[in-house]
Amino acid sequence: MSRPQDPHRPFFSFGNPFRMILPKGSYVSPRLLPLLNTFEETLAERFGKLKPKDKEEVLSLSWMRLAMEFLCETHTDIKSLITKLELPVSDWDEKWIDLYLDNSVNLLDICIAFSSELSRLSQGHLLLQFVLHNLDSNSSKQFVRSLSSLDGWRQHINKKNPRLENCFTILDNLTETLNLPKVKNSAKGKVLMRAMYGVKVATVFVCSIFAAAFSGSTKELMDLQVHDTCFWAEAFTDLQAYVNGEIRYLFSSGRVTVLKELEAVDTSVGKLYPMIQEGVGPVEAEAFQSSISDLGKKADKLSQGLDLLAKEVDGFFQIVLTGRDALLCNLRVASNISDPIQKNKNVEVQAVR
After folding, report:
1. What is each CA distance from 211 to 215, 272, 300, 320, in whole angstroms?
2. Is 82 within 8 Å of 192 (Cβ atoms)?
3. Bridge partners of 128?
């Protein structure tokens, strides 16, 4: 797919998003305002906590797991807010429902793509285990097999996952829907739309980082411009500038991979490979065993990190899916509406996992 070559992807300016959400002179009751304030204060706090304390944390699997946890918590918060607003589905504008259903199915597709990539990377661990098993032997034949497996591992991690291509289009579509529908004569609706705006900004931000990391390209790394009337705007802008800046630096350095644990394994493989290729004498034996041990430790850390991140992605998938199912259930009860998009979704997910 041909894509723009611009190094930065600033989100298009859409004016004041709250001119349609909380227009000048609009009234929000004293009961509703604390709900919105609490939601936005919590979001601001979470944006602040997500900012890495050190640049080395950026695109580590442990930090990416925290980012996915953050999304799970934020989407859980919006479900809780909807309950507290006591805004029945029957009062929802059709545009809200259509937007929610479209966005949720897009998020499910993104989760499927991310799960697919994590599964693919995890499969490389088998090749590394085979290498370590063969290196336990002093047989030259086994050493040759180890070299072949290391070559296979590098080819495997450098392959592009076609499932990720769809994420690019989805993220473009999600950014276009940040400009929320106009809300008429509904204070609860205005509060809900403003809160959902924050959730969508957080979701696009995190998903664009994952897409960039997994695809090996910063073309889909987005610089979202949010309105400064949001309580969380400053914390988000600070986080986005720090993380996106470091990611662009990592890509510009020409590294094989920007995922920290994966890079650590590749570095270890790079040190071990020439030792196997050239042979090891008595003098190099200690360094050789140290390199084997180092590869084993880093391979295990990578495998564990991928497994933990995969669980968080699956958790996010389930949160989005259950929220979508709950809305559809309420719609069917209210007006017997069916959802053709939903069918076969669970089947597709099981095929990936």
Report:
1. 6, 31, 24, 18
2. yes
3. none
CB 132 within 8 A of CB 299: yes
Residue by residue, pLDDT tens for the chain (353 residues) are 333 444 444 433 333 444 434 444 445 567 788 999 999 999 999 999 999 999 999 999 999 999 999 999 999 999 999 888 887 777 777 888 888 889 999 999 999 999 999 999 999 999 999 999 888 776 677 788 889 999 999 999 989 899 998 898 899 989 988 876 667 777 888 898 899 999 999 999 999 999 999 998 887 788 999 988 899 999 999 999 999 999 999 988 877 678 999 999 999 999 999 988 887 666 677 888 899 999 999 999 999 999 999 999 999 999 999 988 888 887 776 665 444 444 444 444 444 44
- What b/e readout covers 142-178, taking b as 16+ CB neighbours within 10 angstroms? ebebbeebbeebbeebeeebebbebbbebbeebbeeb
> Half-sphere exposure of 208 toward its Cβ, with a 13 Å CA cutoff?
28
Do you know the residue count of the chain? 353
How does strand 9-10 pair with strand 222-223?
Answer: parallel
Residue with tokens 């966005």: 103
Helix segments in the chain, DSSP class H: 32-50, 61-85, 94-135, 140-158, 165-176, 187-215, 233-252, 260-278, 285-335, 345-352
| Inter-residue contact 107 to 166 (CB < 8 Å) | no
Would you say 220 and 168 are in contact if contact means Cβ atoms under 8 Å apart? yes
Give the DSSP letter of residue 245.
H
CB neighbours (10 Å) of residue 47? 24
pTM of the model: 0.84
Domain spans, the chain: 9-352
As a whole number of angstroms, the distance between CA 42 and CA 232 comes to 8
In three-state form (DSSP H/G/I as H, E/B as E, the rest C), the secondary structure along 307-318 is HHHHHHHHHHHH
